[in-house]
Amino acid sequence: MKHTKTTWRNIRRSPYQAIAAVLIMTLTFLVISCFTFILVGSSKVVNYFESKPQVTAFFKNEATTEQINALKNDLTNSSKVSAVKFISKEEALQIYKQQNKNDPMLLDLVTADILPASLEVSAVQVEDLSGISDTLKNSPIVQEVVFQKDVVATLTSWTSAVRKLGLALIGIMSLVSIFIIITITGIKISQKKEDIEIMRLIGATSWHIRWPFIFEGMFYGALGAFIGWGISSLGLLYVSSFLANFFQGIPLFPVPILFYLILLGGELLVAIILGALSSFIAVLRYLK
To answer: How many CA atoms lie within 13 A of 134 on its CB side?
Structure first.
């Protein structure tokens, strides 16, 4: 309790330094929160596309049931394939009618005979789609393969690039936070040199002197993490309707409250450790 009062007194006596420390921590955890949202969201988008049929093979009219079943069995037994679905001519017609139900003229012109049967193939991983597409293209009973290779490749590379950029920025901001809190704590120790000497003369232990500075760093970290998390969470809530429309069909929203709470708890824990570590390094260096 005594250390807490001393910590709070030190913060009130140097408000500008405290604001600087909280600000850098806020920026650090704002970056962490934003990139966490981006990485989790992009992972969900990739998982969504991985779980949906990504390669569609349309069969020639002369393809027999035995040939189609043989190709389907080969794909099902592949470790790269998660699911295979056969769409008959009649089922294709029903899908066509559902997609064009508001245009009667188009419905009258199409019958099941002119629509090809097809296979919809889902891959275990996005990277496996190219190989599956090549296998289908080499089949003599397949007329056409629809595969959005460029879209999938772009999505995968974009996710990887964002992950690397996010980790780099988080690492840089964390290091900057540590150095700034070390500097601020060092300045505070220098300003309180006479008080520290008096405390030593009256028998105060080294840890009794150190704890208020360490608690101060923990306070800066926790407050900065909470503000950074709050700004990023409010920002996500603000743009959620736009993103939901943009990613229509992909179950990104609403974001569960539990996710926000878990993220806050994790960030507070990291922030407290980061603040304590920075202050501990400072007191070891300046309190000898």
So the answer is: 6
Interval 222-276: pLDDT, tens: 999 999 999 999 999 998 888 887 777 778 888 899 999 999 999 999 999 999 9
Phi/psi for 6 (5° steps) reads -65, -40
Q: Dump pLDDT digits (tens) for 170-222.
A: 899 889 999 998 888 888 888 777 777 777 777 777 777 788 888 888 999 99
- Can you point out the beta strands (E) in 64-175? 81-87, 118-123, 142-147
Which residue matches tokens 């824990």? 269
Domain residue spans of the chain: 2-48+154-286, 55-147
**Of 195, 160, 190, 174, residue with least CA distance to 24:** 174
- Say what the pTM is: 0.70
* Fold held by 55-147: Alpha-Beta Plaits (3.30.70)
Strands 118-123 and 55-59 come out as: antiparallel
**Do residues 227 and 22 touch, judged by C-beta distance below 8 A?**
yes
Packing angle of the helix pair 206-246, 15-51 (nearest 10 deg): 40
Peptide bond into 140 cis (omega under 30): no
**Collapsed DSSP state (helix, strand, coil) of residue 225:** helix
Q: Are 48 and 130 in contact (CB under 8 A)?
A: no
Answer yes or no: are the C-beta atoms of 10 and 196 closer than 8 Å.
no
